[in-house]
Amino acid sequence: MPWSIAGIELESRFFLGTAGYPSPLVLEQAIKASGSQVVTVSLKRQMAQQGVSALAGGQSFYGLIKQSGAHLLPNTAGCHTANEAIALAHMARELFDTTWLKLEVIGDEYTLQPDPFELVRAAEELVKEGFEVFPYCTDDLVTCQRLLDVGCRILMPWGAPIGSGQGLINPYALQTLRNRLPDVPLVIDAGIGSPMDAAQAMELGFDAVLLNSAVSRSHNPVLMAEAFKLAIEAGRKGWEAGIMAEQDLAVATTPVTGRPFILQ
């Protein structure tokens, strides 16, 4: 069923990262298998791989993304201050001709946890400059509220630290976000390790899932991309249908009438 985020109507709820694939061909095939209509790319990493000429010479990579038909979501991965992220956002807008931006401002090198203070400061400035900011944040409710206060319309809380594959380490906090922010598009970003994790996120009522490593690092990225596509679709359908509540006691599926009978 179609849904809308940042004014764009989408069919897929699977956002896919583009880093770490064995080859451009595998990446192209994985995007197709995933059905993803939003893919992310780190400008900083692309520049590190291709040199400064990435601004002009990375056209083969960007052409691949355009051919997929997916919307590009540049990100500021690798930034540690608001000023650094803002400068990179300007470059991304010029290069990709989009105001969409996944905003990352990392505060801790070990966990790659976002710096909430620098994140909010960068988000406030970029929103004023007309960016559609998709902030990568933790599952802290207050931080999420502050991001909304400065004009963010979408939130991307982590499930677990980036690339850890731990899944949803704090379902209670994530469920609290969903319950307290019912009208805000919420995208689980980071930490997803298996299709089961993605399905769980969707069953909690989240709007989409963004992941990268669980696909690109697998033995068969194309097959794994398809597996995640199906899990995300199944989780969403389950949430829409209504997941049965857990109960402490067993409840018989077939009612007992107290009188046996035999069908002829």
Describe this structure in words.
The protein has 264 residues and is α/β, with parallel strands linked by helices. The protein is 43% helix and 15% strand. The chain contains eleven helices and ten strands. The strands form three sheets. A five-stranded parallel sheet has the order 5-4-3-10-9. A three-stranded parallel sheet has the order 6-7-8. A hairpin with a 2-residue loop joins strand 1 (3-5) and strand 2 (8-10). Helix 1 (24-34) runs parallel beside helix 4 (59-68) and helix 9 packs parallel to helix 11. It is globular and about 75 Å long.
Shape summary:
globular
N to C succession of SSEs: EEEHEHHHEHEHEHEHEHEHH
Mean pLDDT: 90
Q: Which strand-content bin applies to the residues? A: 5-15%
The class by helix and strand makeup works out as alpha/beta
**CATH homologous superfamily grouping:** Aldolase class I
CATH class: Alpha Beta
Strand tally? 10
* CATH architecture group name: Alpha-Beta Barrel
What is the helix tally? Answer: 11
Q: What Rg is obtained from the alpha carbons, in whole angstroms?
A: 20 Å
CATH fold field value:
TIM Barrel
The biggest sheet, with number of strands, parallel, antiparallel or mixed sense and barrel status, is: 5 strands, parallel
The strand line-up of the biggest sheet is 5-4-3-10-9
Q: Supply the number of structural domains.
A: 1
| Helix percent band | 40-55%
Q: Outline the low-pLDDT stretches.
A: 51-57
What is the terminal-to-terminal distance? 45 Å
